[in-house]
Design goal:
By secondary structure, the chain is α+β, with helices and mostly antiparallel strands. It has twelve helices and 44 strands.
Length: about 725
C-alpha cells in the first residue's frame, strides 16, 4: 500500500474538521453590480481560517473591503437572532458571513459582533454606523441613503452618514414590537428552516417603503433546550411549531419612511404560510401557501392599499414544491414560475412552459431584461446553468463540464460557481454568462483533501438508481471480498451521488480507505429526477427509501462481485440517520450494523411545514406517522446500533434519541449511545467533528468483526457476520 496515501488517510479526520468540511476559503455570497463592472463576495482568509471577509473584484483584481480581524479582532459575539440564523443556514464560519448592498453595489453593510458596519466599494475604509442595539440583518435602501435593521425584535431605520468613521445618522424605530412574542423584520422558524426564507424585511425599489413581516409566536409550542453538562445554566426556550400544532401568526405590512403603515391583505386562514416575498419594478409580489401545502398562490400587492390580486394558483394532490427563485418577473412583467407536467418540472414564463420534457428545473437564478437564468438537470448527477431567451428557439446551457453549477448574473456579467469533480470553483464571465476566451477566476483558498475521491458512478436496479461506489485505493478486483458501508442521505432536498467533489464524497472515500466498499445511492424522494420521483414518498417516508437502498446494494453486488453481502453496514445523519436505524430494525437479514446520527425516530416530534408536507396532519393521517416512525419497533433490534445526538439540537430534538434508547432498553435490546453536550444539529466543535469520524469507524469495524484500523491500512479478513 502507498505510504503517502496511508498518512493522508490518517490525517483526513483532522483536516476535515479544521477546514469545516472544506468550506473555509471557498468564495461565496456573490453580488454583481448592475453595470457588470464589480463583483462582491465573501471568503475566509484560507483553508483553516474561519473568519469571513468581504472582497471586491474589479478590473480583474481582488481587493479586500472589510477584514473583521482588523475591525473588531475577529468574528465577535453575535446576537441570538444571528446565532439562530446561522444555525438555520448551517453557517460554519465567523466574521462577515452575510452582507447586503444598495442597488448600484456602491455601499455594502454588514454586522460584526452585533455592531453595524458599512463600506463604500469605490474607496475608503469600513466605518461603524451607530445603532440602537445589537444589529441583525442590516440592509441598505436601494438608493443607499438608509439602512434597515432589526434590534430588540423591532425594525429600525438609520441614515447612512455622509462620510467619516463614527459619523452618526438619525436612527428611529419604524416598526415596534408590541410584546415579547412579537417580532418585526425577522423570519419565523418554519420559514428559515423549511421554506428557505431567511429574511423578514424588503425595500421598495425607490427606497421610500418596506415590506415587513410581523410574527406572533404566542400560540406556538414551546420547546426547552437545556445543557446537562452545565446544570447551573437555565434552559433556553425555543418556539417550535410541532407537527399538528399552531404555527406562528405571520402577517405582512407596508411601512413608509413617513410613518405610514398598511397591512397586506390575503386569506391568512386558508393560506397561513408566507412562503416568498419580493418587490421589483412592477410592485410587491408574494407567494402564500395552504397549511396542507397542496395549493400555492402568487399574489400581486397594491402597496398603497394592501390589497392583493391573484396572478397564479398551483395545486397538487401531494404538495406544491417551493422552487428557489420563484416567483419572479421579467422586465416586461411576465411571471416566472415552474409547472409540473407529466413527470417534468418545467420553467414557465408568462404562463407558458419554455423548457423541454425531461429537463428538470432546480431553481431560478434571476432575470436580465426578458432573459431568465435558471438551473436544471437533464442528467440527475449534474446541475447546469441555463438561459431562456424569448428570442431564441430553445433554452441554452451555459455551464460546461460535469458538476453542480450555479450563477449570479447582473449587467451582462455572470459569476459561475459550484463544485466539479476537481472541487469548488468560481469564475467571472461576460456577455450574460456565455463562455469567453479567458474568464476571470476568483481564487479559491480551500485546502485540497488529503484523500481524493475515486467514485465509480453506477445505474442500479429496475429504477435506474443513481449511485456512486467508492473502493479503497489499494483494492484490486478479485483479491477478496470487501465489507460494504452504505453512506446515503436518500431524503428530500439533497443528492449525494453527483459528479462533484463535495465533502460527502471525501468522507465516503475516507471510509473506503478503512477497508469498506462504500455505496452512495439516491433513491425515491431525492431531487433531480422530477416531481413524480420526489413525491413517491408522500404518505410514507420510510418504505420507498429503504427499499431503494436494499435494491441498490444488491444491484451493485451484481456489477461488483467482490462486495461482501454478509458484512453490510449503514451510516447517516438526520434523515439518513433515521434510515440507518430503520435498516437494522426492519431488514436485519441485509444490514448488520448501523450508525444513526441526529435521527428523527418519531416523526411527530418534527416541525409543521417540513413534516406535514410529506405525511399530512397527524390528527388527520396518523397512520402516515406510524408507518414512517421507529417508535414502537425497538423490540425488533437484533444488530449493533450506535445512536449519536447533540444535546442542544433544536431541529431534531434529542428527545428522539432519548425516548428511542429508553424503548430499546425496555425491550432488552443492547445498543450504544453517544451524546454530544452543547452540540446542535450541525456540531460545530472541531475536535468533536474530528473524533466523530474515528468513533464511527471503530464502532463499525468492531460491529462487523473487522477489528480496529487506526492507521487507515487494509484490515485483516475476519470471519463474516452472517445474515439472519
Amino acid at each position: 500500500m502507498d505510504s503517502t496515501h496511508t498518512s493522508g488517510s490518517a490525517a483526513f479526520p483532522r483536516q476535515f474538521a479544521r477546514t469545516r468540511r472544506f468550506s473555509l476559503g471557498v468564495p461565496r455570497n456573490f453580488t454583481v453590480s448592475p453595470d457588470g463592472e464589480r463583483v462582491l463576495f465573501t471568503r475566509t482568509g484560507g483553508g483553516r481560517d474561519p473568519i469571513g471577509r468581504l472582497w471586491l473584484l474589479a478590473d480583474g483584481a481582488e481587493r479586500l473591503l472589510a477584514d473583521p480581524t482588523a475591525l473588531v479582532g475577529g468574528g465577535g459575539e453575535v446576537p441570538e437572532e444571528e446565532r439562530l440564523r446561522r444555525e438555520r443556514a448551517r453557517e460554519r464560519s465567523a466574521g462577515v458571513v452575510a452582507y447586503a448592498t444598495d442597488r448600484a453595489a456602491r455601499l455594502a453593510v454588514f454586522a460584526l459582533g452585533g455592531a453595524l458596519w458599512a463600506v463604500r466599494t469605490d474607496g475608503g475604509e469600513p466605518f461603524p454606523v451607530p445603532a440602537a442595539g445589537p444589529v441583525f440583518d442590516p440592509r441598505p435602501s436601494p438608493d443607499g441613503r438608509h439602512i434597515a435593521y432589526v434590534t430588540g425584535r423591532s425594525l429600525h431605520i438609520v441614515e447612512v452618514p455622509d462620510a467619516g468613521a463614527g459619523a452618526a445618522g438619525r436612527d428611529r424605530q419604524l416598526a415596534a414590537a408590541e410584546g415579547p412574542e412579537i417580532t418585526y423584520g425577522l423570519a419565523e422558524y418554519t420559514a428559515a428552516e423549511s421554506m428557505g426564507r431567511l429574511r423578514g424585511h424588503w425595500w421598495s425599489p425607490d427606497g421610500d417603503r418596506l415590506l415587513v413581516a410581523r410574527v406572533d409566536t404566542t400560540r406556538v409550542h414551546r420547546r426547552w433546550i437545556s445543557d446537562p453538562a452545565h446544570p447551573d445554566r437555565p434552559p433556553r426556550a425555543i418556539r417550535y411549531p410541532l407537527t399538528g400544532t399552531d404555527n406562528a401568526d405571520v402577517s405582512l405590512w407596508v411601512y413608509g419612511l413617513d410613518g405610514s403603515r398598511t397591512e397586506v391583505v390575503w386569506d391568512r386562514v386558508a393560506y397561513e404560510y408566507l412562503a416568498t416575498v419580493g418587490w421589483d419594478a412592477h410592485g410587491p409580489l408574494i407567494g402564500v401557501q395552504s397549511r396542507n401545502q397542496r395549493s400555492l398562490r402568487t399574489l400581486a400587492v397594491d402597496p398603497d392599499t394592501g390589497a392583493t390580486s391573484l396572478l397564479d394558483e398551483r395545486t397538487d394532490p401531494a404538495w406544491v414544491e417551493l422552487v428557489p427563485g420563484t416567483p419572479a418577473r421579467t422586465a416586461s412583467g411576465a411571471l416566472v414560475l415552474t409547472h409540473d407536467v407529466a413527470g417534468t418540472r418545467h420553467l414557465a414564463v408568462g404562463g407558458k412552459a419554455v423548457t423541454p420534457a425531461g429537463l428538470q428545473v432546480r431553481g431560478v437564478l434571476g432575470t436580465e431584461g426578458d432573459r431568465v437564468y435558471f438551473t436544471a438537470s437533464d442528467d440527475p448527477v449534474e446541475t447546469h446553468v441555463w438561459c431562456h431567451d424569448p428570442e431564441a428557439d430553445a433554452p441554452v446551457r451555459l455551464s460546461e463540464g460535469p458538476g453542480t453549477h450555479g450563477a449570479v448574473v447582473g449587467g451582462g456579467t455572470a459569476v459561475f460557481h459550484g463544485v466539479t469533480p476537481e472541487g469548488p470553483y468560481a469564475e467571472v464571465r461576460g456577455e450574460g454568462g456565455v463562455a469567453t476566451p479567458a474568464p476571470t477566476a476568483i481564487a479559491c483558498l480551500a485546502e485540497a483533501p488529503v484523500v481524493t475521491p475515486r467514485p465509480r458512478h453506477l445505474l442500479l436496479g429496475k429504477r435506474q438508481l443513481r449511485a456512486a461506489l467508492y473502493l479503497p485505493s489499494w483494492y484490486e478486483p478479485g483479491t477478496g471480498p470487501l465489507p460494504v458501508l452504505l453512506d446515503p442521505y436518500a431524503g428530500p432536498g439533497m443528492q449525494l451521488a453527483v459528479a462533484a467533489r463535495g465533502w460527502t464524497a471525501c468522507v465516503s472515500q475516507w471510509f473506503a480507505e478503512q477497508g469498506f466498499a462504500v455505496l452512495v445511492a439516491d433513491g425515491r424522494g431525492t431531487p433531480g429526477r422530477g416531481p413524480e420521483w420526489e413525491k413517491a414518498v408522500h404518505g410514507d417516508q420510510l418504505t420507498p427509501a429503504l427499499e431503494d437502498q436494499v435494491d441498490a446494494l444488491h444491484a451493485a453486488a451484481e456489477q461488483v462481485p467482490d462486495l461482501d453481502l454478509d458484512r453490510v453496514a449503514i451510516r447517516g445523519w438526520s434523515f439518513s440517520g433515521f434510515l440507518a436505524a430503520a435498516a437494522v430494525l426492519l431488514r436485519p437479514e441485509v444490514f448488520h450494523a448501523a450508525v444513526a446520527g441526529a435521527a428523527p425516530t418519531d416523526q411527530r416530534l418534527y416541525d409543521t411545514h417540513w413534516k406535514e408536507r410529506f405525511l399530512g396532519h397527524p390528527d388527520e393521517q396518523p397512520q402516515n406517522y406510524e408507518r414512517s416512525s421507529l417508535t414502537g419497533r425497538g423490540h425488533l433490534l437484533r444488530r449493533p446500533l450506535l445512536l449519536i445526538h447533540g444535546l442542544a439540537d433544536d431541529n431534531v430534538t434529542v428527545a428522539n434519541m432519548l425516548r428511542f434508547s429508553a424503548e430499546l432498553l425496555a425491550a432488552g435490546r443492547p445498543h450504544t449511545v453517544l451524546p454530544l453536550p452543547g452540540a446542535t444539529h450541525a456540531p460545530a466543535d472541531d475536535q468533536v467533528n474530528e473524533n466523530l469520524l474515528l468513533f464511527q469507524r471503530d464502532f463499525l469495524l468492531d460491529a462487523l468483526g473487522l477489528g480496529r484500523n487506526p492507521a487507515g491500512t487494509r484490515p485483516p479478513g475476519p470471519a463474516p457476520v452472517r445474515g439472519a
